[in-house]
Every structure is written in C-alpha cells, then in structure tokens.
Amino acid sequence: MPRSILDKPFFRDEAEAYAKLESIIWPEGPVCVHCGRWDRIGLMKGKATRPGLYKCYACRKQFRVTIGTVFEASHIPLHVWMQAVFLMVSSKKGVSTHQLHRTLGITLKSAWFVSHRIREAMKPTQTDPLGGAGMTLEGDETYIGGKGENRAYGPVPTKQIVMTLVERSGAVRSFHVPNVTAATLHPILAKHANTDSRFMTDESNVYKGIGWNFRGGHATVNHSAKEYVRGEDYTNTVEGFFSIVKRGIYGIYQHVSEAHLKRYLTEFDFRYSYRIKTDFDDMARMDKALSGIVGRRLTYRTVGKSGAAAAA
User: Fold this and answer.
1) Which DSSP letter does residue 251 get?
2) 136-256 has which CATH code?
C-alpha cells in the first residue's frame, strides 16, 4: 500500500526533525556554534530537555542546530517547518500564505513570515556565472503586474520589470530591474553570464551593444516578424520560465509587492534550477533548500501604528 511522503518521521516528530536537519547541516557530527569545537560535545538527555539540545564542554554553552539559521528563535515546531519547506519546494507554481496557514494550522502572520524565511534559504550560495563553452544562455525581460482595464477604480498599477538569464536544460537567475537599458543590463551580464556561452535573445536593440563580447556568439530571433524558432535559435526556454512565474504570481500569490518581488523570484529560480530533469526530486530539492538556511536569519520589526512588518 503506497504511503504519503508526508508520513516520513521528520514531518511528524520533533526529535526526528532535528536529526534530519543535523544530518544536512552537520554531516560529520555536531559542531559548537559558539566556539567551533567538535570534540567535547554531548547531547542533553534530561526528561525536560528540548529536542536536539547539545552542550559544549569546552565553552560550557548550550546550542542547537537551528542557531544562526532561518529557524532560530521560532516558536513553530521544527517538524512543521519541515512540512512548509517541502510544500514550497514541491509546488511548481508556489503555495500561498493562506494555503500554508490552513494546511499547517499556524496563524496567517506566521505563515507569511515562514514563507519569506524559506525564500531566504533558497538564495544561491554561489553566484558563479551561468553558461560556459558549448552552452547556450538565453536572456529576456518581462513585465509583472496587473492590467489597468481589470481595475474597477484607482490608478493603473505600475508594472515591475524582471530580467532573466537561463541555461538551456540548466539553471536560471532572475533580477528585478528598474528599466531595460544597456546601462542596467550590462552589469548583470558582466557578473552573471559566462562570456564563453552562446548568447540568445530576441531582436531588442538593448542587447546589440552588450552581446558582442560573447565568444560563443550572439544570435537573435525576430519576434516582431513572427519568427520564434530558427534551428537552434530561439528564446522559448526563458519564455517558458516566464510563463511559470506569471501563473504563480497571478494564480497563486495574486499580488506581489515591489519590496518583496526579489524573494519571490528567488523561489521560482530555485525550483526551476533544481527540477526533476536535473536529477532532483522533491525530497532532494527540500534537502538543498535546508542546506541554505545557515547565516540567513531574517528578522522583522513592527513599525508605526498599523503594525506593518518591515525588514530589520
């Protein structure tokens, strides 16, 4: 009889959840987060002791694997965090805050905070340039935001611009940019694109002045002339990624603020970069997200009388 993947012990039991996290963060055994020692550490086993609590007998301090991570100082049980991470990495177009709130049995405010902490963990640990010799790198931009004709009243919503680089059958990296000009896009390409790649774009003039330095060549397709594929020349890969992003934002999240758009883009980038066809199933994608929690604690403070949360 098939069993639900959410029936795994670390989704149900707090001690198992800590053991799971420790196997990812401390693959060679626990390390004191205070002094860095590993040879004089003991697991606390008292009846009233919290799960996963260790004591370092070198510096005489206690610690857990969650210290210094996005899970630190959270009152939400770790096994519930595990469930939230799995839901976010396994849902192709994302999972809404309301859905996390209903499914996990936590408050709406907590669900919103949980989702943003997990997005911080999804940020890439390395920013090596995408592409390389023999690889094709596609670049394009799109506009995120509602349509004016869909509003019954009020001002026309401002569109947010997203520029994306994607390797064919590889990783993707997206950027929230203020405008589409060579001055804005050139620094992004200089840092995130390997110039040994073959660079593929549409006919936009903005890429003509910055695509010449790709040693693999710069090719274009003319969308204005209804040209979308010419042999190996196409931008369908990056456009397919944009379709996933827009379906997620319009269909799942409904609205994404300008202040947090970069975090939602990180979420979509992460899932696309570690998708099944690159030998990452949902559980491997979860482990990858958990490996990025260290040193990325995200805190918020309450500001003003409205009680709105702002990044600290």
Assistant:
1) I
2) 3.30.420.10
Which helix (H) or strand (E) segment holds residue 141: the answer is strand 136-144
Rounded CA-CA distance 109/113 in Å is: 6
Residue 21 three-state SS = helix
CA distance 179 to 231: 31
The answer to whether residues 174 and 168 touch, using CB atoms and an 8 Å cutoff, is no
- CA-based end-to-end distance of the chain: 48
Residues 6+ positions from 83 with CB-CB distance below 8 Å: 6, 11, 103, 104
Q: List CB contacts of 257: < 8 A, sequence separation 6 or more.
A: none
Return the residue matching tokens 């995130």. 192
Structure tokens at 279: 């030998």
Boundaries of every domain in the chain? 5-121, 136-256
pLDDT 10s digits, 262-274: 999 999 999 999 9
Only one residue has tokens 């990296």, namely 173
**Residue-wise pLDDT tens digits, 237-263:** 999 999 999 999 999 998 888 999 999
